[in-house]
Every structure is written in structure tokens, then in C-alpha cells.
Write a structure and sequence with these properties.
Helix content: under 10%
Number of domains: 2
Distance between the termini: 44 Å
Order of helices and strands: EEEEEEEEEEEEEEEEEEEH
Low-confidence stretches: 1-11, 261-272
Oligomer: single chain
Strand order of the largest sheet: 4-5-6-7
CATH topology of the largest domain: Neuraminidase
Number of strands: 19
CATH superfamily of the largest domain: TolB, C-terminal domain
Largest sheet: 4 strands, antiparallel
């Protein structure tokens, strides 16, 4: 089993592979598969997410910057393919108008199409969901409009057996606290759930799905203690907060004040 990760090498980044050895207490062997050139070289810069592998051993990923001179000269990001022989080919370079700054990884369907998100770009510069065909053709499946539609998807997608895509936006929705969205195979997007601060705020990570179709994820903020949540979404859209986080420091203060003053905790909500 191999482990792929990203490492900083000087001013650039590299994709590296670690091969664990069978000998106890031995060091892992690392191989640099590719070092991005960055800048205006066009091959990409700052890969910030993981990789997806196909059956032939090719790896696919994104770079947050690079791919040209757009977006103020830094480049607007790329989708790349790393072949087993170590060569990298840029499948698509974002131009900043249709989409920009992919900060998450990719998923692949059964016919080889790649799907992902960009945190900015699109019609209202609120981010997009895109599709890359095997021949490199890019299609924007949805441009987020902000407001109730959601804005700034910074996490990746999941796909169900019917081909529906699910993901999160860190902002937007009915209350501005972020959303879970769904895109059908025909490209129709709908907000599956809008967070309302108590149920969570700012979902910045992706989702997982169980066999029954329930979705699970986290929010960076919100919940009854305002420090984030773990949530469940049923197939019909009902949300359940499985856990609201309390920082250790705050938990100690709440317990101490409850003991000293006999409060039930309803009036002790505060920020530290």
C-alpha cells in the first residue's frame, strides 16, 4: 500500500509517494513523483487537496493556482493528470471567469468524467461545480449566485448510485450560514439544506453517505455552543445535530459556574 502526499520543496510543491517497509522500525522510502514549476509555467501551483486514481493507475488532482497568467498573474488553478511514468498533463486551466481557485479534490464517475468545485469564479464569483470530460472538455454544471443559493464551495463532492452530486457551500443559504446542495444528472441544482447557525454554520468539509442515503458532515462553526457540529441529513432533508462541540476551556468554565451559581446552563452562552 502506498501513501501519496504533498510536500513543500523550496518555492514549489511536489507530489510524493511513501512506500512502507516490512522491516520493523525502518524508515519509509519517499519518491517525488512530480515537482510543480509554478508561476507562469502553466503546470499549476499549490496543490491543496488529495488525489483520485483510475483503474489504469493515473492520478488526478487540482492546483489552487497556476495554469497561466490570469487572476492577477498567479493563475486561476488547474486540473491535472499524473501518469504512472511520472509525466503530468494539465487537463484544464481555469480562466477566472468561468471558474477559479479549486481548493478541493476530484471524484470520477464510471465513464471517466471528473467532477469538482471551485471556491470562486462563475457568474457571480461565488464559486462553481464543474465537470471535466475524458477529452478535457470543461462544463460548468452550476454557478453559485450567493444569497439563498449558497456561496463559496471549498470542499469536494460525492456522487450517489443515481449520479446525483452532493456538496457544501461555506456561506449563503436562507440564513447565510451555508448549505448542503444537490445536483441531478441533468444538471439541475437545488439547496438540500440551509444551516441556521443553531444547526450549524460554515460547512467547509465534504460529505459522506451511508447505504440508506443519509448524509453526514461537519460545520466549522455554529451549534448550540457556536463551536461547530457533526450533523446528519436524512434523504428527505431532515437535519439532526449529532454533536455540538464545546472547547475544553469553555467546558471547564461552564461546569465551574454551574456548580458555583446553580445555573442550568441556559444563560451561560458566551465567547472566549
Amino acid at each position: 500500500m502506498f501513501r501519496i502526499c504533498e510536500c513543500i520543496l523550496g518555492s514549489g510543491l511536489a507530489l510524493v509517494m511513501f512506500a512502507p517497509l516490512a522491516i520493523a522500525n525502518s524508515k519509509s522510502q519517499e519518491t517525488v513523483l512530480y515537482s510543480f514549476q509554478g508561476g507562469g509555467a502553466g503546470d499549476g501551483e499549490d496543490p491543496a487537496a488529495g488525489l483520485t486514481q483510475d483503474k489504469k493507475g493515473n492520478f488526478y488532482g487540482t492546483t489552487y493556482l497556476g495554469g497561466g497568467t490570469g487572476c492577477g498573474g498567479t493563475g486561476c488553478g488547474t486540473v491535472f493528470k499524473l501518469a504512472p511514468d511520472g509525466t503530468v498533463r494539465v487537463l484544464y486551466s481555469f480562466d477566472g471567469t468561468a471558474a477559479a481557485y479549486p481548493s478541493a479534490g476530484l471524484i470520477m464517475d464510471t465513464v471517466g468524467n471528473l467532477y469538482g468545485t471551485t471556491s470562486e469564479g462563475g457568474c457571480d464569483d461565488c464559486g462553481t461545480v464543474f465537470k471535466i470530460a475524458p477529452d478535457g472538455t470543461e462544463t460548468v454544471l452550476h454557478s453559485f449566485q450567493g444569497g439563498s443559493d449558497g456561496a463559496y464551495p471549498v470542499a469536494g463532492l460525492i456522487i450517489d448510485k443515481k449520479g446525483n452530486l452532493f456538496g457544501t457551500t461555506a456561506e449563503g443559504g436562507a440564513d447565510g450560514a451555508g448549505t448542503v446542495f444537490k445536483i441531478t444528472p441533468k444538471g439541475k441544482e437545488a439547496v438540500f439544506y440551509s444551516f441556521d447557525y443553531t444547526s450549524g454554520q460554515a460547512p467547509r468539509a465534504g460529505l459522506i453517505m451511508d447505504k440508506k442515503g443519509n448524509l453526514y458532515g461537519t460545520t466549522n462553526l455554529g451549534g448550540v455552543n457556536s463551536w461547530g457540529t457533526v450533523f446528519e441529513l436524512a434523504p428527505e432533508g431532515t437535519e439532526t445535530v449529532l454533536h455540538s462541540f464545546i472547547p475544553r476551556r469553555k467546558r471547564w468554565r461552564l461546569s465551574r459556574r454551574r456548580a458555583d451559581h446553580g445555573h442550568g446552563g441556559q444563560s451561560l452562552r458566551h465567547n472566549i
